[in-house]
Structures are given as C-alpha cells and as structure tokens.
C-alpha cells in the first residue's frame, strides 16, 4: 500500500547565480514531502532525481492511474527509507519538465517562452537551488542526501558544496564523471533532437510542434544503455514479434526488442521536453568535481565530511562498479567513513530502480542506522 | 608499398532467387582480384565485407588520394594474406552502394530506381551471389573464405551452403547471430534514417535529397559500438575541444569526442546510401544459422566440413569473444578442426581492421599453412 502524495510549488523571486555566469530569477521549484519533520528538524532526507524523473518520488495521486512515484519501492511507510521515521523531500530540478521552471516557461526578462534561451544548469546549480528550498522549509541540516545515477552526482556534490548541512550521502549507481562513451551516447541523443526539423533551434513551442522524431531516437538510445546485454537477451533475445516466420522487411517490426524500443520511444516523446533533454544530458556531461584539481578526485573530495554509502550494480555498464570504486577510493584517501555495496544484479543501470532484496536490505540497514542517530 | 587495384564488374542476367522468396535479375557485382590464380585454380581466397566496406579490399586507385583498400594491411604482396601466393577476390555485396546493384539503381521490372523496392537480401543470398561469381571466374573450390564482423558471418555461412567448395573458413570478430542489444542498436539507427523527413519512404532519390540527418545519427551510434570504452577514454577522455574553460552550451561542441563523432557522421552521410544501411543492418539482424535448429548451433554446423580459424578481440563488446567461443564449441561438437585466437587488444570491434602484431602473426601463420596445402 502506498500513500497519497501532494505536489507543492515554491516561488523564488531572487536571482540564483549559475555556474555559467548567467542567473535565473522568478523561478518555481516543484517538490513533494512525505513523513513528518521532527522537532529538531534533524530527520530530513533529500532525494535527487536523474534524467527522466521528478519531485514525485513516492506515493500516488488520487484518481490518476499509474501515478506512483518513481522510487516508491524504496521510500514510504515501512520501506527502506521509512517515511514513518524520515521527512523525505523530492524536488524537481530547474530546467526539467515536470513542474519546476524550465525551457517551456516564460522568461521574465523577455516575456517570451525561454526555449533555447533557458540557461545551461549544472549539478552544482541544482544543489544550490535545492539548498535554497531547504532554507525556506526551515531545514538547516539534512540527515541524508540520496540519489541514483545523475541523482547520485547531486548527492556527491552536496558533500562538497554544503558539507556542514548534511550527515550522510547515499550515492547509488553513479560516477565521479561521465566517460567518453557516456558523453558520446548523450551527444548522439542531442544531435537526434537538435537536427529534427521540428526542433526549430529549440523554439518549437511557438511553431506548435514537438521534435518527436529526435526524442524517440534519444530515448531508444537511452534505453539500450539502461539495460544490460544479458537482461536484454533474457527479456527479448531474438524473439520475433509475430509468429515464427521472418517478414523480410527493413522497416516493419520483426523482433520483440524493436517493438519494445519503439514503444518506449513513442511514450517518452509524447511527454518529455526536448530542451530539457539537452539540458539534463549536458549537466551529466559537465559534472566532474575533480576537474579543478587536475583530475585528482581525492583532492576534490577533501572538503567532504559526510558519511557515505555507495551502491553499484555488477551489470551496469553505463555507471560501472569501477566508477563507484573510484569514489570509494577517493573518500578513503581522505579518511572518510564509507560503506560500499556492489550488488550482483542482472538488470544493468536500471537495477537501482528495481527490487533486488540484497540492495533493498543494504539501503534499509543504512537508513535504520541514520534513523537511530537522528531520533 | 601497396599496389594498383582495378575494379571490375560482372553482369548476371539470370534471376537470383532470394531467401525472402523474391528474386533479383539483371544485376551487376563489382569485384576486384589481386594475385594470380594458379594452374589448378586452388589458391583463391574470397574476402567478404562488413557494413561499410566493399570489393576494394586492398591496393589503391592511381590518382585517388586515400583510396587504399579497407584491409590493405592484411592483404597484399608479402602481407599475412599474401597475394604472391593467393588469388584474392573481393566482392561488393548486392544492395551495397559501392558498385554492385543496389537500391540506387534501376529496377529492370519497372524501369524506375529501386529505392524502397530493393528486395531484402540476407547473408545467405550474398553467399549465393558470390558463388555465382566464382562460377564465372572458373573457380570451383576456394582455398579460404575470409571475413570480419558481418564478413565473418558470410564466411561461416559459406561452410554451410557450399561445404564442398572451400578448404578453410577464417571468421574474425564475428558471431553466430546478433544479440538483442546488437539488434537494438541497428533498430535505432534504422529509425533515425526512416524517420528523417528526407527519407521519403526510401524513395528520396527522385526528390533530389538525402536523409543525411538520419545517416549521421546511424553512423555516430555505429562508431560508439565499434570502439571500446577504454580506447575512447584513452583517445578522447573528457578532453575539451577548445581551451580549458567550459562554454556552457547544449549545442556547441564542447568535448573532443563530440567533435570526432560529428565528423564521422558528416563524412559517412555524404557517401553512404540510406537504403543500403537499412538492408545491411537487416542482413545482420537476420543471420542466425541455428534458427532452423531450435537455436542449436551444433546442429546447424553439422554440414560444415571446412577447417576453421576464429579470431576475437577481448574489448570487442559488439561481437564479444564469448560469441566466437560459441562457434568454436559448436564446431568442436562436430569434430571439426578449429583454431581459435582471442587477442588481448584495447580497440574494441575496430581491432579487426588494425595492426595488432599478435593478430597479424596468427593470420600470417594460418595462411602460410594454407599456401603450403595449395602450392
């Protein structure tokens, strides 16, 4: 049984300075909270989202089918991140398309839709925006920041930008930066979107069209990288969609995997904003706390003081275990307290969203200990 | 020093029945030969090509810069496949775009360009077409059929379709069929092409346009899968294209890897035919000799009698060593003679085209032994 979630929105009139040198003002952040903030405001957990997710982390919206939050298996009453004990906050990041201010909204400086003019936002910018939201919610120090994938990058960045404002960082299926291959996949997806004639340089809103072709391709590429080769073979293999005979066609769907990918692409292209896709993949590309330290991650993490849990999944080739181990090593180099679980799961990067009993049990234990600290 | 290559063309008036039930007549095959056929016609080696290659396997065209054949490091006088000893034949496959009859040519049944009507061709069809060419060249039995990647699939198929017409099969960086992930990448590439508004359902020729956007995306995806994660990190890493400062742009090139991929995409889209891309990736998808045997590769290979060399490369994640080992096992199950080399090379799938001394030395030894047999 899940619970009813209530989306909220906070307005921020003051300009938020961004890493690029630009700034954004008069913006909204969509967020949700679950559970009760305790008397000394010590039990708050911030959950950061990845590419295609939002502030709607757990619970459901009454009357809306399939409205369950994206990490509802992890977060809720009695769940590993137990909302009977924690006050959990989900925030939709700036530039996203699920309620917070993004490229589809009006630029207060021009009175026109931002479109391509929405400023490039980084993981660090998101963390700053999240910190401002916490200020307004009266939360000085978090029990934990938790995130998977790009969300894990935000959790890691929190430990560097606001070390004094958090106790724990839980970084799941993440990496200290993207590899060249990761950037390459992002770039192909972006090119598919940008070269779609319906993109109109990012100003497609006023043309009444959506670059759906590009978004479909972007999502199909994404999906391939979220799954492991093994799980794809298991789920789809070389199974034909219909019957046993080949159709001998280059354009009709022949294999189940094609049908699955096209379906995922179609679905995604009907709701996800094309400019948001560009912005979020770019934030992924740019994240690299070691950059200012000549690539020395240990140097970059010197300022951190949180305690850490890192989790990775053996078949995740998008954010491979070796990348998590780089973070673990750099944390240990700094004498920081770090737990690390490498989960032998077949599902690839997607594993961080799925119910693996060992994964769930690691998360549960870790958060039980945090709960004791802040009780 | 390389040698001058001379492209040739053979006309085939008679209909070639295709696996799909369709047939193709009045077609041409472009081919090249290097070296001299010996008196008893026993020293012929057929080289089969992969997606983006042709009959121009070795040598160069006088006056044309960068016209060196795609496997010139492997094939030529004194090279591992020594044209002082072998008569080497390269054939451009039907449906390709380098001289043999393809979708850009006139359909004799309609008098119009084939376009989308070009029949779907399979690895088996190509092998049949190659066998007909050999008939015309007066070659009854090949010393070897050699191919890498999709070319390796043709070499494998030769051993099943014409076991009596060959002594050796050399199957490099190949697989007994594509995995779901392989098919998935092909499908994304095809969707990028087919949904490009300039594709016009495959009949873009009469519109005077080329679906370059789609071809660019297809090639970028391809390139990512040809390289290993490691070699991408080594060659490009997170290096910026210009200077040390970020531009904070979603559309400008920021990282070297983006520049490389865009360049490869642009180049490819200027010369490769979109319909050919669909046809060749489909031939890859369809190849699966074990299909008629309930997935039992050992059963499928029962008819083979050739001696085999298989080569794979450790970092090739497109056609991983495990896939070559499946073939090796199935051959051994049938008591066939097979040598297998797994080369520890960092270059991913591309390794089969590169100069790795251990790889070259394995190939040289194997072909030296063949040369002794047929001398």
Features of this protein?
homodimer; alpha/beta; 8-stranded mixed beta sheet; two-stranded antiparallel ribbon; about 35% helix; about 15% strand; globular
Structure in a nutshell:
Helices cover 34% and strands 17% of the residues of chain A. The first copy, chain A, has 375 residues and is of the alpha/beta class.
Describe the protein.
The structure is a homodimer of 375-residue chains. Chain A is α/β, with parallel strands linked by helices. In chain A, 34% of the residues lie in helices and 17% in strands. Chain A contains 10 helices and 14 strands. In chain A, the strands form 4 sheets. The first copy, chain A, has an 8-stranded mixed sheet, sandwiched between helices. In chain A, helix 1 crosses helix 2 (150-161) and helix 4 (212-226) packs across helix 6. The radius of gyration of chain A is 21 Å and the shape is globular. The model of chain A has no long low-confidence stretch (mean pLDDT 97). Chains A and B meet through helix 3, helix 4, helix 5, helix 6 and helix 7 of A and helix 3, helix 4, helix 5, helix 6 and helix 7 of B.
């Amino acid at each position: 049984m899940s619970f009813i979630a209530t989306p909220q929105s906070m307005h921020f009139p003051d300009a938020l300075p961004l890493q690029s040198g630009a700034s954004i003002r008069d913006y909204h952040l969509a967020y949700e909270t679950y559970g009760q903030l305790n008397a000394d405001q010590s039990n708050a957990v911030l959950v950061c989202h990845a590419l295609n997710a939002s502030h709607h982390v757990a619970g459901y919206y009454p009357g809306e089918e399939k409205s369950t939050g994206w990490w509802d298996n992890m977060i809720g009453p009695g769940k590993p991140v137990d909302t009977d004990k924690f006050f959990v906050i989900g925030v939709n990041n700036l530039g996203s398309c699920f309620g917070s201010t993004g490229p589809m909204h009006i630029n207060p400086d021009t009175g026109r839709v931002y479109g391509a003019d929405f400023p490039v936002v980084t993981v660090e910018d998101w963390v700053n925006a999240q910190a401002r939201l916490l200020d307004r919610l009266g939360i000085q120090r978090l029990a934990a920041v938790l995130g998977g994938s790009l969300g894990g990058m935000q959790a890691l960045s929190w430990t560097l930008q606001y070390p004094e404002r958090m106790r724990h960082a839980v970084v799941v299926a993440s990496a200290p930066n993207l590899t060249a291959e990761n950037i390459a996949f992002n770039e192909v997806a972006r090119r598919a979107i940008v070269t779609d004639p319906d993109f109109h340089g990012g100003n497609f809103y006023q043309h009444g069209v959506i670059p759906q072709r590009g978004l479909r391709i972007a999502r199909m590429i994404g999906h391939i990288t979220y799954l492991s080769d093994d799980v794809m073979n298991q789920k789809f293999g070389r199974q034909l969609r219909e019957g046993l005979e080949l159709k001998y066609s280059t354009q009709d769907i022949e294999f189940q995997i094609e049908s699955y990918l096209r379906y995922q692409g179609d679905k995604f292209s009907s709701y996800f904003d094309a400019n948001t896709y560009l912005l979020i993949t770019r934030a992924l590309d740019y994240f690299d706390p070691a950059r200012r330290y000549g690539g020395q991650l240990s140097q970059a993490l010197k300022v951190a003081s949180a305690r850490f849990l890192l989790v990775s999944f053996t078949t995740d080739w998008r954010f491979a275990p070796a990348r998590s181990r780089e973070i673990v090593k750099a944390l240990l180099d700094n004498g920081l307290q770090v737990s690390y679980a490498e989960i032998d799961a077949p599902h690839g990067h997607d594993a961080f969203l799925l119910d693996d009993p060992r994964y769930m049990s690691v998360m549960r234990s870790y958060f039980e200990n945090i709960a004791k600290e802040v009780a």
